[in-house]
Design a protein that fits this description.
By secondary structure, this protein is an alpha/beta fold. The protein contains 16 helices and eight strands. The chain has one domain: Alpha-Beta Barrel (TIM Barrel). Helix 11 links the parallel strand 6 and strand 7. The chain is globular, with a radius of gyration of 19 Å. The relative contact order is 0.14. It binds adenine and zinc ion.
């Protein structure tokens, strides 16, 4: 357990989050509200406490079965706007100043959203989040792990509609048996158009998948990548090329990607010199939030206030925020760490 002082320091620390999904970040309150709206046509409970209980995942494939049921609650532009605006408010309450929110447009398009409408709604919500809460949002459009039409539709909405907040292309969904390499043409097109590459790999699959993400998709950061720990040559490559892993410790325990927090490979990754950031993935689904993930990292890595502030700085550095925005956020972190340092002078 970390000290109450460090817990307080983390709670007030200005932070950036680089790996969090819009559906997975919806609060149980908003999910329950949507479930009530669509009662009779959904198995999702209409009570926030029961929503939390609903998120008791047996493993990663069970998680992937439950997830679409929450996607299915987003049926109108208002549902989508309310969800994203709520996520922004929850982030602001955690002192998250900047977040790259992973959005998977394809299942929404399959449920009837027109691409233009989808982009207009999320962009309006993004601007309102910044105006109402001061939190800057950017988008990672995520291919839902299926080549062919779902991947093509994702690329098409990304490049054809190109919302202002879009910074990267991702790749999520099922991983086992889904080679990263087969998505190379989509990532090549996105990168040629100026988008960054941030695929999931090595969450529940081995280091070979992380190699594929790096070699074939030009990954600049890798979502999870934790199984990369099994391959020293890969760790050396990630360290040498400054390829950051977006580590989500509690997510990995809840999906049984790792057996326990105590056995999480985060310390080994850090010891190997791999750049890492700490993230939530799908916070209410995993009963966590960013402050809690920072506390988990502080415990696993034996961090003090300076170490925790360095985690926040690492997220800013590895983000796709522009130079000016990065400098401003880094200055804010420095000012906070300077003012709140409980270190002896
Ligand atoms: N979509 C939402 N969360 C995910 C995860 N942890 N892995 C892959 N796809 C996801
Ligand atoms: Zn994820």
């Amino acid at each position: 357990m970390i000290s109450p002082e460090l817990t307080r320091f983390i709670a007030g620390l200005p932070k950036a989050e680089l790996h969090v999904h819009h559906i997975g970040a919806a609060s149980p309150h908003i999910v329950a509200e949507l479930a009530a709206r669509y009662e009779g046509t959904t198995a999702v409970p209409a009570d926030p406490a029961q929503v939390e209980a609903f998120y008791d995942f047996r493993d990663f494939s069970h998680f992937l079965q439950i997830y679409p049921q929450i996607v299915d609650l987003v049926r109108t532009p208002e549902d989508l706007w309310t969800l994203i605006h709520g996520v922004g408010g929850d982030m602001a309450a955690q002192q998250v100043r900047y977040a790259e929110l992973t959005v998977t447009p394809q299942p929404h398009l399959a449920r009837g959203f027109a691409p233009q409408e989808f982009c207009e709604v999320i962009e309006d919500a993004r601007r309102r989040v910044e105006a109402d809460f001061g939190t800057i949002l950017r988008w990672c459009f995520d291919i839902p792990g299926i080549p062919g039409p779902p991947a093509e539709q994702t690329l098409s909405i990304a490049l054809g509609h190109r919302p202002d907040g879009l910074v990267s292309l991702g790749l999520g969904g099922a991983e086992a048996g889904v080679s990263r390499s087969q998505f190379a043409p989509y990532f090549a097109a996105a990168r040629a158009a100026g988008l960054h590459s941030v695929p999931h790999a090595g969450e529940v699959t081995d280091a070979e998948y992380v190699w594929q993400a790096v070699r074939d998709l030009g990954a600049e950061r890798v979502a999870h990548g934790i199984r990369g720990v099994e391959d020293p040559a890969l760790l050396e490559h990630l360290a040498e090329h400054g390829i950051t892993l977006e580590v989500c410790p509690t997510s990995n325990v809840c999906t049984r990607a790792v057996p326990s927090l105590a056995e999480h490979p985060l310390p080994a990754l850090v010891a190997a010199g791999v750049p890492i950031t700490v993230n939530t993935d799908d916070p209410p689904m995993f009963g966590t939030d960013l402050n809690r993930e920072y506390a988990v990292a502080a415990e696993l890595l034996s961090l003090d206030e300076k170490g925790v502030a360095d985690l926040a700085r690492a997220a800013v550095e590895a983000s796709f925020l522009g130079a000016e925005g990065k400098a401003a956020l880094l200055a804010e972190i420095d000012a906070y760490a300077g003012q709140n340092s409980s270190a002896p002078t």
